[in-house]
Structure formats: structure tokens, C-alpha cells
């Protein structure tokens, strides 16, 4: 028998030196992971406490109010808004027409107008009708909406430049302004991102829609005449018309008012560029006064530009033929625009300023004027009643976030609305009152927040000589550079958004 002292011994696997070393290392790693986990959890907890503290929330809100419109864009808009028009009237003497002007900037007849060779040519309806048969995109004699011609007796062709802090010189800015650079840049940006821009309003908005279309058609024809490289080479500008017939509930009950306020068709233009797969779309929606029954038609828009104005009496503030007050309808419109931006991503709402009227009345508005003719506005009435009314409503319903005044505050408003408001004719109130209950979702949170940009262009149009006739001091004739400067500000609002 073997004695116990001499019996063989068995070594377990975890008792080997190599295994003990591995276990030791694993323990160190595990302890390190646990320690680091607690460390990072503590950091996250403290970070959340910091982020959601009242002080931090104010800083974040302040940052957000500035970030929607970057500071450089606000400076550019403010600089552009500080400008003024510089005119050189025909016969132009201080401007040398370049050899390629005929191919890139003007049509041959237009150069003769500017040189005074066809003087005294009157750009009235008769001249407009004659040139419409030759060209549909010539300055001064192209039809915008129902208006055609620059028919004031004092009107003269001119090289007009909007001079501001960002304009280095008249000559250096010529190509941009007269090449309709801003209209092309606006459409190019829409095409790159396949966006749909919708103008919603009355005959003034129809003029603006037509002016953008004509500026692009004009650029296309001028590009086709020339042989130089263009920053925004166009392929086509095409328009389609869609009939609208939405007027009955599911039970056959009429709910859309008949007559002049009823939208009968939607006009849509599509613009294509070389080397871009996308297409820019912009449309006109007839909206003569606040019409909540039309809002559903805007669902396919990415960008809405809206205005209510000239069909509200300047002296009573009430809508012509309906009696609704302008301030009440603007509140309903702002509510709808905020809801538009809050319900889907990738949407932008813009409010256009009213354009100046130049009738021979105390404040330039239509009514209370006893003779025809358009005249300059008195300095004290430069900010006319419609824009004053808009500002009052926006100040009441909207603000810069956290009440902080920034350089962007004239151009962006952050608004809080209740979409189930019944004090004004909101879309909700309209649907309920007309028993359109299938269109109402009571489950959704009624409180909405959103941003509305302000497209302020009244100062650009403060020129009484650019009106249509001596009897119409509201609509403007086709002056390409005038509308291109307006589209410059719109493009600045939309760039990078």
C-alpha cells in the first residue's frame, strides 16, 4: 500500500498560474468597466440637469431663434432693405451697352427704347397689345395677370438699379440685376431640392406669380440667343392649369361661396435646369380674402407665400362684400400657416407685405380720392394701413423666442396658436360650422408652434411711375429688375432652409 504522503496529487484548471493570471486580468477589466459606466452615467445625469435648467433653456431658445435665419442672411436682408432706386432714364447717356447686351440682357427693341430711338413711344394698353403678338416677355409691355403696359403719361424707360450697402457699384451689379440672377437663383434652389412654392392671394399675387414666370421665360430666350456660359442654364419653363371644383360635403350640401372669391383653377409652372434631376414648381392659388375652404388644396405645397390685403377696405378694415375684419382674418390665416408647418416636415410659411398704393388720397389708398393719377406717397404714410395691421397681429400672436430681440426679428416670427380657436374663422371653426366633421381630428393636440417668415418688399415697390394706368395705382407693370429684386429677398429667406 502506498502511504498518503506518496499518493499522486491532482491540480484543478483554475489553480494553474496561467489561469489565475487571466482571472486577475478579467477582474481588473470588469471593475474598470463598472467604474467607467458609473462615471459616464453620472456625466449624462449632470449634463441633462444642466441642459434642462431654466438658464440653459433660455440660452437654447435664444440660439434657436437665431439659427433659423443665420446671422449673415439677416445682415444681407437688412442691407438690402436699406437701399434705394437709382434711375437713368431714356435716352440713357451714362451707360455703354456692351456687345453682348442684346444676347444676355435686353432684346433689340428694348435697347432702342433705352437709347430713346423710338421716342415718344407710349407703353399703354395699345402698345402692349401690339408687342404681345411679337414677344410675350418684353419689359413694360408684357401682361401680368389682367394688367398690361406701363401706362402713366410720365413713365419713361430706364436702367434702374437697387443700390444698397451690398452693391459695390452700378456696373459690377449690372449682370446680376439685369441678368435676372435672383429669379434664376430662386428657381434653381427649388429645382435642386424638388420644392413646390405656392403664391396664395389676390390679383397682386397673380402679378408676382406671372412676373416670376416671365422673368424665367425671358432668361431662357436670352440664353438661347447667346453663346456664353450661364450659372443657371435653363432647359424649359412650362405651365399647366388644373381646374378646381370642390364645393360640396359628402351629403351634397354646398359649403363654398359662389362668385368672385371662388377658386376655379390652379396655375402651376415647372422649371428644369441642365445638370439637375429635380424640377422647380411654383403655383398660384386665387385667394381673394381669407377663404378657409381652400386650405386643403395647399397640402402638396412645400412653401406657402400668403397675403390678405387690398380686398379689405383701407378705411374700415372690413373685407369688401363679406364684412370680415382684416385683423380677425389675419389671425385665422396665421393659425393655418403655423398648423401647415407643424403637421409635416420640410414646410415653410411666408407672409408677404402689402404693396404700396399711390392714389391721390390722404394716405395713398384707394377710396376718398377725387381725381385720377398716381402720385408719390407722403413720408408720414409710407407704412400703409395694411402693413400696420399685419404688424399688430404678428406682435400679438408671435414673438422672437424667449422675447429676445435679434437682427432677424423683422424677418422671422415664432408663433403659438390654438388650431381649435373659434373666435375667428379658422379652418376648424369653418368645418365645424359647416358640419364637415370628417375633416376634423379632435385627438390631435390643438396647441401648435411654428415659424412664419416675413417677405417685406413694400419699399421696393414705392415708385408711383411703375403702376399700370392713371386709374390703377395698385397693380404694377412688368419692370423686370423690380420683380427680380423682390425675388432676391425671397431667395435670401429660403436659402439653406
What does this structure look like?
The strands form 4 sheets. Strands 6-7-8-5-9-10-13-12-11 form a 9-stranded mixed sheet. The chain has a two-stranded antiparallel sheet with strand order 1-4. α8 runs parallel beside α13 and α9 (203-225) packs across α13. By secondary structure, the protein is of the alpha/beta class. Helices cover 36% and strands 17% of the residues. The chain is globular and about 115 Å long. It contains 13 helices and 15 strands. The longest helix has 35 residues, at 17-51.
Unreliable residue stretches: 1-9, 57-67, 168-178
Distance between the termini: 95 Å
Beta-strand level of the residues, as a percent range? 15-25%
- What value does the Rg take, in angstroms? 31 Å
- Give the oligomeric state of the chains in this entry, treating copies of one chain as homo and distinct chains as hetero: single chain
| DSSP strand tally | 15
What overall form do the CA principal axes indicate? globular
In DSSP terms (H or I, runs of 4 or more residues), the helix count works out at 13
Q: Determine the fraction of residues in helical runs and give it as a percent range.
A: 25-40%
Task: Give the helices and strands as they follow along the chain.
Answer: HHHEHHHEEEHHEHEEEEHEHEEHEEEH
Structural class: alpha/beta
- Residue-averaged pLDDT, rounded? 82
**Order of strands across the main sheet:** 6-7-8-5-9-10-13-12-11
- Report on the biggest sheet: 9 strands, mixed
